[in-house]
Queue: 4 jobs
Job 1
Amino acid sequence: MGERFAGAGFELYLVGGAVRDQALGIDGHTEDMDLATDARPPDIVRIVEPMATAIWRQGERFGTIGATVDGKALEITTYRSERYLEGSRKPTVGFGEDLETDLSRRDFTINAMARDVVTGQLVDPFHGIRDLERHLLRTPLSAEISFSDDPLRMLRAARFAARLDLRFSAGVLEAAHRLSSRLAIVSGERIFAELDRLLSLPNPAPGIRFIWETGVLGAALGGVGLQPFEDVEATIARLASEPTVDSAVRWAVVCQLAGVDVDHLATSLRMSTSRSQDLHDLVSNDLPTDLSVPTLRRVRRRLGDELPVRIAAVRRLLDPDVRSDLLPFLDRFARLIAEESMDDLRPPLTGHEVMELLGEEPSPLIGDALEHLADLAIERGPLTADDARAALRDWRPS
């Protein structure tokens, strides 16, 4: 492909995370590649179309053409710059003329490297390789310019530092302190996506510390003031000691520590309905102290098999002292799941059979009868059809 661009008089470079990960010896997602060129979108389409099995032009006005070539998903973008205007929630994009200018507008030096697709030559004008060796997170231009152009980069800084074990340059720290409130111009969807990526890492603690202490997290959560990090540091550290918990559990922990209303936050960050409901369920449901089988069956019927275990994880992360209190519940709940299927507790009679038994036409009474049988199974265990008929012969709701 590089030869085709060169033959048409254009440059083509591999850019972004693939170049960084190559330098780190990390196996990247080779099926997806980001490329940069001085060709404009119509020229990109003209060059790529003969060899592509699919073309996407949705991002054309931003300079990006998507294509599938030899089974690989490519995003080919014209050299560009982008920045937020005062009060805008969407960046304005302008096309650039040269690679170094394009790289200078990228978030961090470790991502501001490029590799010539034809020759393989590395282009590293802002010393990203050196910063990787020094484990330093730094911006190509001043951090103040970088974070002003795109405030979301403050959250990206947290993610890269946590993922790659990087320390922050003084400029990054100072600019994040000064510009954290500028996150107010970034859309809720973008903030949620970036925070979710951070909370999905094996050890998000270094990134959380950065955004907590600089005020970036408070701004991301709607401008809330946060208590000193030292007061919550042990809890955040436990997130790393529990690598198997999912990001929603971590969201619940962070929200509880920050003192934010999860329903309001889910709306402001425009979480999906399912994600919003899951977060609500994690923080609004209690686990029983009564560990009788009927009580555990009710919990299981109401919350399912997985949610109670995840609720216990939230409680354990927030307060390790409750671990011993939770163990009996978790043990008995796991045993119940292993020994009994919820299908076993379903009424053994159909609605039609209940109507025949009660001599009733279709009505809410039939639903009440089936619910009564379900409640009996919760109390007594699985019912046979004869058990159910006997239970309903003299039954009428009060």
Note: Residues 353 and 384 are 14 Å apart (CA to CA).
Job 2
Amino acid sequence: MTTRRLSGKTCWVVSDGKAGVETQCLAIAEELDLRVSVKRVAPRRPWRWLAPYGSPDPRVAIGHANSEFAPPWPDVIVSGGRMTVPVVRALRRAAGRSTYVVFLQDPRVRNDVADLIWVPEHDRRRGPDVFTTLTTPHRLTLEALARRRAQLPEFMAGDTGPRLTVLVGGNSRSHTFTDADVTRFMAALESLATHFAALYVTASRRTPPALAQQISQFMHGRNGMLWDGTGANPLHDFLAHADHLFVTSDSANMVCEACITGKPVHLFHPSGGSAKFDRLHSALEEFGAVRTLPTPVDGLEHWHYTPLSATEVIADEIERRWERVVTARAHSAPR
């Protein structure tokens, strides 16, 4: 890991417990080499309904001696998620100039909730305290990817490549896998599979049962692995040793993780979508990282691009801005 100016400083990751955003917060804190404490908030009604506006749930008891949100204040707070906004706002007032606050994703309130707000480029939010990157942060860095590539895991020892990694999402607020989508996906997977010696597949809790069952039947007796959710998650090895990737487009984080590899990412689009997803996919295609997989698949395309790793870029920006803010605060402090 790069030697960081913030290395060893204390950090609270303030989370609403949702895995996607909490993982992004942890990725940034780990890249900065901070000493992390995770603090989760679960506001009751009506404070839950009011978030991101209003005050935090009183039981959070910010600043009280028996609260987990009490001094000594951390050097850095990294947070994300609408439910955390009232708590982060109150913490910033209580901690004052001693704590640098980073918020990931759009807080849906004024920019002064944090010293720095990060959003992906496909989000419309902008401002002097807003920083954007094309892809989202995650816990697989370029350095970690290189380490994994240097050693083949035992479960891949018997295959000779080339390898196809398949990342399967599922139904969400913006996407739905219809019966026709399941049929299209399986046809594309069968066609792609003819070009590879081994397939490494991971599905999601959101994957429709009908699709999960067909994938399981398809993988029976084939070289590779279908991760069933038990044991250590092999995702990072799947990414590190992929020659090509086949990814469903319903998860921005999943697509962005695939793009750290520098290897061809073939996208499958289920029904639905949104303008934000369209902007992300278009930007990644323009960059040269992804292409929509044609149906039926006619041959296998190869392409190359510079691996996209937002985590390091965001951490660099936090350090640059933190140093400026700390210097300015020191100069303005009473003497």
Note: The mean pLDDT is 94.
Job 3
Amino acid sequence: MENVSASWKPFHESLLLIAAIVAGASVGLFTSFETSLMDYFIIAMLFMLFYTISLEGFFDGVKNKKYLFLALMSNFVVLPLIAFLLSSALVDRSNAIFVGLVIYLVAPCTDWYLGFTKLAHGDVEVNSALLPFNLLLQVVLLPVYLYLFTANTIDVPLDVFFDVLIYWAALPFVAAQFLRWLVSRWRADIFPRSHALAERFVFVTLLLLVFSIFNVHVESLIANTTGLPSVFGVILIFFITAFFLARFTARSFALSKKQEISLTMTMAARNAPLMLVISLVFFPQQPLIHLVLVVGMLLEFPHLITITQILKSGTRKSNPQEFVS
């Protein structure tokens, strides 16, 4: 039997995120910390996040070309179009909230979607092979999406993109992967513990980053919360649409049940932590964009838990012998 507490962990994380928001905003009403603190939290979070990424299973899973093609087309063509249409319908395209929604919704997850794939009894191997593609393409394509979807409505600093790509993505990734290789090669006995510690610190640094965002920008955020109902509406409709679209796609192309679950998970989970970092570099004076990404995380955790239970329930009914404890 699986550890039931594991499936409830994201609820605890959501509560901690809310606590970080409240604490940061409360302290910010009286005093604000230096904005440079956010840079340190960003660097720490990126390094820890990239350290947890494993590329070992990539070459085995990449053999399933049909699944990878469907997942990549869904994540980088179909879902960005849906995100644009939904956001355009419910939010003014000249508003920073629109930009925040685009940034959040076009970027597929590169970390916790694997944990939820495993919890829902999906094919972890094929989703592991998908990870490096998701990571590379979302960083490269983000300025393309911003240019296409926000043309002539908001100033998108595309010249900053190369700095983001090199200094905030490539260098931390290479450094983290080098340390990961070094530890696994020379101190294999402590590698599992170092990986688990890095996973914990990803969330710790994320909490510190969220705290600092709300601490520095609390007054601006309070003055601009009227658009939050639209944010909730767009994100919830997007999640529901992605769920049914994943199931329709998987069945139309005769994927296995495990691969259907995997496709559902990669289309459901978004990469809010990394996009939060990139948005802070791209748009340092646009707290509404950062607010949208934090709201997305708060909605995403319970959403992923819900569809995990739905998928597991459906799998038990179709294959009850696999779940005999």
Note: Residues 1-7, 321-325 have pLDDT under 50 and may be disordered.
Job 4
Amino acid sequence: MPPSQTSAWRAIVRVLRSTAAGALDSMTSVVFPADCRVCGLPLSGFSLLPVCDSCWNELPAQSGALCTRCGESLHFEAPETEPLCRVCSSAPPPFERAVAHGVYCGTLRALIHLLKYEEVEPVARRLGVLLAGQVLTIPDLPQNLLVIPVPLFARKRRQRGFNQSDLLARSAVAVLRSRRPEMHLKLLPGALIRRRATESQAGLSPHQRRTNLRGAFFVPRPAQLAGMDVLLID
């Protein structure tokens, strides 16, 4: 065989070996489930969501005395039937009610980081179920709602490639529609725009959070929201 043909056959063999190795790697990743991305323990089965059932079970709903306006934990005994935190008592916020499933720490924090920074988008579907459950606890929940995900600053949106609040909102809306088919929900992801970057809200007090966000957003088409009830998801 001429040298040129020998070199060509060697190149083909190298390609075949590389292809076979890649196929073996793919087969291995399919046959052997990955470890849980939160606790590190082996997963018992195959799933697009690499989080074990034990970690999902570690997400109990927030309990104890909560402010009936902003949903923050009250660090004092609240004898009133509708207690308010000190911030809401002194400066009532412009919204009617805020709810959350849990505190941003531990397993919940790890799951949100998987979504935000590692792009594990199936996390949003599971968290959206929990979020919808909390929305349904709101007394006198309006039947007609505009659902608006909190937007990212334009530069952050380009860097990340997606908005985690938008994914959560879409999941929550799907759950709400299935559980409350009589509700009329309209998702409006572009109804709110973030005009400047802000600090992370994690670790800030309720007062600091409000100061941090003051003037950060604007509504480009106010008439679109005039007179409407809005469900803001973050």
Note: The longest helix spans residues 3-31.
